[in-house]
Amino acid sequence: MTVFHAIVELSKASWRVLRRYPCLAWFPVLSLASVIAVFLFVVPVIVPGSDDGELSWFTFYLITVLLYVTQMFFSVALTAEALRALRGEKPVISNGLATAAARAPAVASLALITATVGFVIGLLGRSTKVGVKLAKALVNTAWSLATYLAIPVMVQERRGGLTSLRRSSDLFRRTWGETTLSEVGVRVVTAHLSLILLVVALVLIDLLGDSLGLLFVLALTIGFIAVVGALEAIYRAALYVFAAEGVIPEPFSGPELEAIWCPKAPPDAPVP
Amino acid sequence: MPFDVEIDYDRGVPVYRQIYEAVLQALASGALPRDEQLPTIHDLAGRLTINPNTVARAYRELEQDGYIEGHRGRGTFPTAERLADPGDKQDILRSIYDKAVVEAARHGIGAADVVRYFRKVRT
Lengths: 272, 123
Description:
The complex is a heterodimer of chains A (about 270) and B (about 120). Chain A has about 270 residues and is mainly α. Chain A has helices at about 5-20, 25-45, 55-85, 95-100, 105-125, 130-145, 150-155, 160-210, 210-245, 255-260. With about 120 residues, chain B is mainly alpha-helical. Chain B has two domains: about 15-80, Arc Repressor Mutant, subunit A (Orthogonal Bundle); about 85-120. Helix content of chain B is about 60%, strand content about 5%. Chain B is built from six helices and two strands, in the order αααββααα. Chain B has helices at about 15-30, 40-50, 50-65, 80-85, 85-105, 110-120; strands at about 70, 75-80. A two-stranded antiparallel ribbon of chain B has the order 1-2. In chain B, α1 packs across α3 (about 50-65) and α2 crosses α3 (about 50-65). Chains A and B meet through α9 of A and α1 and α3 of B.
């Protein structure tokens, strides 16, 4: 099976879950709305009006942490309900939000750690040296892969931020192929859909005029964020079940898909 | 007290395997009597908030290995013959001992310490 074929099959499996439980797509929308609300109502309080418009490093860092906390809160809520959907139970938006609220300290600590690392990696990106840029790309990829399962770990195993990260990197050692495939998959799917979205946007603006066209483009963009965000969270939840529980959850099993899943036991782990 | 399973994610052992081991342990210790029905897949999955496929895999492997058997319409029960066979018991104990010694050796603990610990736990 080629990588592209695997990505298509995994996307189709995630899509089957999303089609059955469309309420999962509301979480990325709520996340987007909350991020906008933070920008509109909280950031102006943190950033007092200044003449030069320059932000201090600390203020910039504070805003980054705030955005990470907001976004992670809804990711936790979505993941909790995606895991529920994979168990064959009906996901409920309020249940997801309640789970995220119950994990608030862990959400805050994980957001603080990831925001800090993201901030430092971002600082590296300001350098114009090719070597530094390459190092940044490598560190960024390694970090996103090692932390890929931190949110499902936090939800399912009720761990704190730091222990979720540690456990996520342990699980990554057993599922590096599937995790990398997912990272690549999300980028490939996002890039393809973005391209389609761009073409549709240009056609719509041309056909409907600026204001109506832009309105449609905005609706399409929100729909795009909702679908891609939900699909990715569903796959991530399935990957967690595979890594931690040792089984392939229902919509991801079957002859076509089973070839993709292949656990790699760490050298010191007991043989399953 | 009804049969129960506690999942320890820190062990690094897949959850289905932990359920498998918990059932074996309950059978060996008598916590799960021969005439007692095992929890249904959905019941145990619901209690542990895990995927039903995980419990199903543990039960499937226990059934394949002859420790439990499903009775249509009545549920899943321990297999009497498997546990009553003294030869099997010796094999199981040998396997447990081997695993414990190998695991202990990985941490630099000798076989004599393992035996001493088992004796201490028993008393």
